[in-house]
Write a structure and sequence with these properties.
Length: 306
């Protein structure tokens, strides 16, 4: 349980880093870069900043690079990539719009295809936005680093002889969260829809929803079942398939408790103070800073829907 708490706090720091950076003293020291090999073809680049994981899928026709951390990490990402292959970056896939997943899109040289869900591209094209959305990074001549390949529900992408499938199962963390599947090695990543084993940050400005979160994760489980053995989180470790199934169960249990509390006339603060996952889901943490906000948002959305 302590490990789950620590991992969720790391995720929280990543999302809140813009706010912290504006305070006296700025950010705490970033964790060092750590390159983890999951397969002959697949590597996870952790750390280097308070930001999301970056994946290197070394395919037949070049490297598929998933998420580009924060601005200023491009050179470090390429240095790490050159430790494993000399192949060029053939494609970038951004799992969603946030600054800690799209920040170095323009620092990786000329990349022919940059892929994202159509809603994520729309968020990045906003005239103005909160810093977390990162639309300010794609103005003027930097517009050329916007995603130029989009999809609505599912799409198959080819890189040489290799195939990568991208899917959208509905809103949750944002309304443009992409699931990426590497069929030949049975690995998937869903960005911050499964960012860590805990309560997520919900970006309502970009279409995120607490009330629909459990259904979106359930659709992901249904859509990927039988095709995936390993699921990489947006910010921490890779987990076996069953942990995504259990993550969906955790969110269903949490939502059921909140909806029952509304019917019983209890307050969001009461629920946030009292909720404890069942023993078989004890490795999923329910902690601040996101727990109270998630419950309050779920309350508000549920009451508006009635």
């Amino acid at each position: 349980m302590l490990r789950a708490v620590a991992l969720s706090m790391l995720l929280a720091v990543g999302v809140l880093s813009i706010v912290i950076a504006a305070q006296p003293g700025g950010l705490p020291p970033a964790p060092p870069l750590r390159l983890e090999q999951l397969d002959d073809k697949l590597y996870v680049l952790h750390g280097g900043c308070m930001c999301g994981n970056t994946l290197f899928y070394v395919g037949d026709g070049g490297v598929v690079l998933v998420d580009t951390k924060v601005a200023g990490q491009g050179a470090a990402i390429l240095d790490q990539l050159r430790n494993v292959t000399d192949k060029p970056v053939a494609m970038i896939i951004n799992t969603h719009t946030h600054f800690d997943h799209t920040g170095s899109n323009g620092e990786l040289g000329r990349v022919e295809r940059i892929v994202a869900h159509e809603n994520a591209r729309a968020s990045l094209m906003k005239t103005t936005c909160a810093p977390v959305t990162n639309c300010g990074a794609f103005k003027g001549e930097n517009e050329r680093f916007l995603p130029n390949v989009t999809f609505s529900d599912s799409r198959t992408l080819e890189v040489g002889a290799d195939r990568i499938d991208v899917h959208y199962f509905g809103p949750g963390h944002t309304d443009g969260d992409t699931w990426i599947v590497f069929p030949d090695i049975r690995v998937a990543m869903g960005g911050d829809l499964f960012g860590a084993k805990g309560v997520p940050y919900i970006d309502t400005e970009n279409g995120g929803t607490a009330l629909g979160y459990d259904e979106t994760i359930a659709r992901a489980v249904a859509g990927l079942e039988g095709r995936v053995d390993t699921v990489i989180t947006g910010h921490v470790d890779a987990y076996p398939w069953d942990d995504l199934v259990r993550y969906a169960e955790f969110h269903r249990h949490l939502e059921d408790n909140v909806l029952a509390a509304i019917d019983a006339g209890r307050t969001p603060d009461d629920v946030a103070a009292d909720y404890v996952p069942p023993d078989h889901l004890a490795d999923f943490s329910f902690i601040e800073p996101f727990a109270s906000n998630f419950v309050q948002l779920l309350y508000s959305e549920a009451q508006a829907a009635r």
